[in-house]
Amino acid sequence: MNKTIGYLYLFIAIIGWGLSSTFIEFGLAYLSPIGFLAIRFVLATFIPTPIVLRNRMSTIIDLFRCKWTWVVGLSETMGLVFQYFGQQYVPAGLAALLSLLFLLIVPFLSPFFLRVGLQKSHLIAVAIALIGVLLVSSEGRIENLLSGSAIGVLFLLGAAFGYALYFVTTSRLSTIEKPGLDTISLFYVVLFIIAGFSLLPLVVIPWILGLVLFSTMIGFLAYFRFLTEISANEASDLLLLQVLVPFSVDFFLLRRFHATWVFLGSFFILVAMIIVVKISNAEKMPITIDELSRDG
User: Fold this and answer.
1) Torsion region of 205: left, alpha or beta (phi above 0 gives left; psi -120 to 50 gives alpha)
2) I need a surface site. Which of 53, 88, 131, 268 has the fewest CB within 10 A?
3) Residue 291: what pLDDT?
C-alpha cells in the first residue's frame, strides 16, 4: 500500500467520523448514551467476526495478551462514553469540534508515550483553545457557564482526553511495541473491547445502523489502515476536516444556525489546533509502521 492509498483511507475515516456526531445526536433522542454505545459496537464487532476469525485467531489472541491493546481499547471507550453524554447537551457540529481538541492534548502525552518533546508553542495553542472553549460554552454570557450546555462541554473535553490517549497509544502499539502488526486484527480487537465494556439494550434504530456502518466499521478500519502509511502528525492535520461534515449537515440539512459567539469561539479552537499540528508536522518523528521498518 502506498501513501496515496493511505490518504484515501484517511479521507474515508474523516467522512465516517465526521458523520458520527450527527448519527449520535439523532440516536440519543431514542436511547440512553450507554445503551446506544453498546448497540453500535456490538453490531460493529459481530458483523465482521466470521471473516476476521477465519485466518487471524492467533494474531487476535496475541493482541489480547498485550497491555497496550487494552489501553487503546479502554481509552477509546472512555472518549466515546464522555462524547455520548456530552452530546445530550451540545449539537453535533460543536460536539465534533470540541472532541477534536484531542489534537491539542496529543503533544502533552507524546513525551510519555512516543518520546517526543513538548514545545512552548503548544502552551500558546492551548491558551487560545481555552478562550475558544469559554466562548463556545458561555455564548458571551458568564451565567451560561453553569447551564446544561456547559456541562456538555465538560463531558466533551473529557472525550477529547480519551481520544488523545487513544491516538498516542495506537501509535505506540503500531510503531514501537508491535511494528508491522495486522491492522485488521487490531481493528477487530479494539471493537471487541469497546463492545465488552458496554451494555446491550434490545432496541435498534436506523441511526445506529448508519453509525455502525459509516462511523464505526468503515471509519475505524480506515483509521488503522491510513496509520500504516501516514504519520500521526500529518494525519492529525487533515483530520481537522472532519468537523466540516457535521457542520454541513447542521446548516444544509437541519437548517440549524449558531450564535456569533459560538463561531468566534470555534475560530479560536481551530486556530489553536492548526498551531499544534503545524508544530508537530515540523518535528521529525518516525511514526508510521513502514517508516519504522525502513529505519530499522
Assistant:
1) beta
2) 53
3) 43
Cα separation, 80 vs 176, in Å, equals 25
**3-state SS assignment for residue 183:** helix
Q: Measured between alpha carbons, how far is 160 from 169 in angstroms, rounded to an integer?
A: 14
Q: What is the CA radius of gyration of the chain?
A: 18
Q: Which of 220, 241, 243, 242 is nearest to 167 (CA)?
A: 220
Q: For the full predicted model, state whether its pTM sits above 0.90.
A: no
Which among 151, 190, 201, 150 has a CA at the least distance from the CA of 36? 201
Q: What residues contact residue 94 under an 8 Å CB cut-off, 6+ apart?
A: 136, 258, 262, 266
What pLDDT sits at residue 140? 62
Q: What pLDDT, on a 0 to 100 scale, did the predictor assign at position 82?
A: 92
* CA dist., res. 173 & res. 169, Å (int): 6
- Which stretches in the chain have pLDDT values below 50? 200-204, 284-296
Q: How many CB atoms lie within 10 A of CB 25?
A: 21
2 neighbors 186 (Cβ within 8 angstroms): no
Q: Which residues of 108-131 are buried (b: 16+ CB within 10 A; e: fewer)?
A: bbbeebbebeeeeebeebbebbbe
For the chain, how long is the longest CA-to-CA vector?
58
Please state, in angstroms and rounded to a whole number, the distance separating the CA atoms of residues 116 and 111: 5
Structural contact between residues 249 and 92, judged by C-beta atoms closer than 8 angstroms: yes
Q: What is the pLDDT of residue 294?
A: 41
Report residue 251 CA to chain centroid gap.
Answer: 22
> What is the C-alpha end-to-end distance of the chain, expressed in Å?
19
What lies within 8 Å, CB to CB, of 4 at 6+ separation is: none
